[in-house]
Automatic annotation (TrEMBL):
Domain Glycolipid transfer protein per the UniProt entry, residue ranges: 21-162
Listed GO MF terms: ceramide 1-phosphate binding; ceramide 1-phosphate transfer activity
Keyword Transport: yes
Keywords: Transport
Protein name as annotated: Glycolipid transfer protein domain-containing protein
Gene3D superfamilies named in the record: Glycolipid transfer protein
Cellular component aspect of the GO annotation: cytosol; membrane
InterPro entries: GLTP_sf, Glycolipid_transfer_prot_dom
Length: 207
């Protein structure tokens, strides 16, 4: 077992059809990822509260749009298309920033998985350079720099991720790697799909 990962919806279990990525399932999986930054105390740094807060805020924006227009928001693509003609596209912008935050986290953990001798701070720094940094001003860059320096030690993070909150035996490293890699691969595929959708439709203009 990989206890934390099995306690939340996996991105691998988010249905994707010809109509697009299932909105509710995606938001549930994204909420599970937010737990890494605070709720489950896995990354264990108050400095990461800015990341957690940003992800939560953008999940809420997409959720509010879904609740207000459920019939035309079953998939992320439909939700964005439906909001297109409106003056203020709050959910479209929120989803764009949510995808950026998810991409940052995904690439950081993929870096960590690919480089077993590397500390988390290095993995997150490398990811930040290639994802969020280009969208941030000087002040926000400084906040993220502090957050990444405060990353827990690699061993502490993986020990917490493998631990069973109920007190049972922890997941083996092999099982943990298997579950985490599957989770991250599915997330990366969704992010890539949605980035292409935004690019082709020009949905990110103005944000």
């Amino acid at each position: 077992m990989a206890p934390y990962l099995e306690s939340v919806r996996s991105f691998a279990d988010v249905p994707i059809t010809d109509a697009g990525v299932d909105t509710v399932a995606f938001l549930e999986a994204a909420q599970g990822l937010v737990g890494l930054f605070g709720d489950a105390d896995l990354l264990g740094s108050a400095a990461f509260s800015v990341v957690q807060s940003d992800l939560k805020s953008n999940i809420a924006k997409v959720r509010a749009r879904y609740d207000a227009a459920t019939a035309v928001s079953a998939t992320l693509e439909q939700l964005v298309e439906n909001e297109k003609g409106e003056k203020k596209r709050t959910a479209t912008e929120g989803l764009l920033w949510l995808l950026r935050g998810l991409s940052f986290t995904c690439k950081a953990l993929q870096n960590s998985q690919a480089n077993k001798s590397e500390e988390l701070a290095a993995a997150f720094n490398k990811s930040y350079e290639g994802t969020l940094k280009q969208f941030h001003n000087f002040v926000v860059k400084g906040i993220f720099s502090v957050a990444m320096k405060a990353c827990p030690y690699r061993n502490d993070f993986y020990t917490k991720l493998a631990a069973d909150p109920a007190g049972g035996p922890p997941a083996t490293q092999e099982k943990l790697d298997e579950e985490l890699n599957k989770w991250l691969a599915a997330l990366a595929a969704i992010v890539a799909r949605m980035e292409e959708f935004y690019e082709k439709g020009g949905h990110g203009k103005g944000f």
